[in-house]
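Hi all, a correction to my earlier message: I attached the wrong file for Periplasmic binding protein domain-containing protein. Here's the right sequence:
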Amino acid sequence: MKKTTLFPGFPTVGAAILGAGALVLTGCSASAPAAPGSSGGATPAKVSPAAAGTCGSLPTDAANDPNGLLSGLPKEIAAGYNLYPYEIRKSAWADYKSKKTDGFTAAIVGMPPASPFIASMSAAIRTSLKADGVKIVGDFAPDDPSNVPLQLQQFNEALSLKPDVIIYTAIAPEPSVKLAKAAHEAGIPLIAAQVPIDSEYAVSVTRNTPLAIAQVTAGTVAAIGGKGNVLRVDGIPGIPVSTFAGMGIDAVLKNCPEVKVAGSVTGFFQPATAQAEVQKFLATHPAGVDAVLQAGTMGVGIRNAFVESGLEVPPIADDGSSHGFSSWALANPGYPYFGTTTPSVRTGEAVVDVALRILKGEGPKINQIVEPSVIVSRENLAKVADPSWDHNDLTDLAGNPADYLPTDRLNAFFSNPGA
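and the right structure:
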């Protein structure tokens, strides 16, 4: 009898929205999966970069920059906005400087710490604020990650406290656009942590999800030679991160006429749900597929679905990777692996850094501070993964914190760095 790989349960909508914000989920260990068929001890074939416009190449769609603002950034930073959907605008805080020079106050409006990423990032925000002498006058989070009305109410409560800055991780970015304008009218800078807001009145500090998804998708389809049948595993339809993920996948597949989508399931950004849905698909497609393209964070569950179905694990695009999948890939050198890291602590530190720079008058040039994800492949997997990690550990793969928005890179986003 096959044993069933178990994950802890989450309320579907709540966990999905947490995945939307951070592309991470929490979990605990289950029994270790088997190695992937005949690939276990082999050396993977080297995946050569695909020629532009061919299957496996990275698309280069222009950033949404109608006013050419990215031309004011170094070329290597501007390139990180490839596929980014939100319009790049001049920041409404470009000429702002607080009347105070110290004794700053901050209010935090976040998400409940139900995922490792959110818990770690939020803790880093608090620690960094306190280390910089910033008094936290309000620290809010809704009781459930699906409670949008309560979070909006909490934001207004934070606004009423009249802090010098608000740090906000939105459950729902769209209704937050009005909140950003209200904060600007009150003279309070708003920093959107991890979940971007499409407004010149907020300064978003985030990663480029469509680009990250496109990068791991391109590597994955190149690993199967640019042809074959693939399964798509979506997050939750209608929320921004699922839309962004779909954009990244579609941008790659448009150059892949010989890659056929054999089916699509919805995993709600939950490894357990993804495993169950993929197993249902495999029950009616016993030959399996050549690769899996997913919206993120569900790699362990998808992998286990193939193991439990008695099939070799195909290449799985692993955006938002975990300790479990990365260590399993490390233990199986014949497996073609493409994933991304998620440095939660450094994200929190960078958010606070941006907030203090604005208060001190450094002048943010644009409204979207975007950092490309660090791509993990066979070439650097051993540097970021630990072979001792449990193969079902859903903890985020943090990578090297120094890779995410280091000081010299952040300087480029401000007109007067060090002011």
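Sorry for the mix-up. The CA atoms of residues 214 and 248 lie 4 Å apart.
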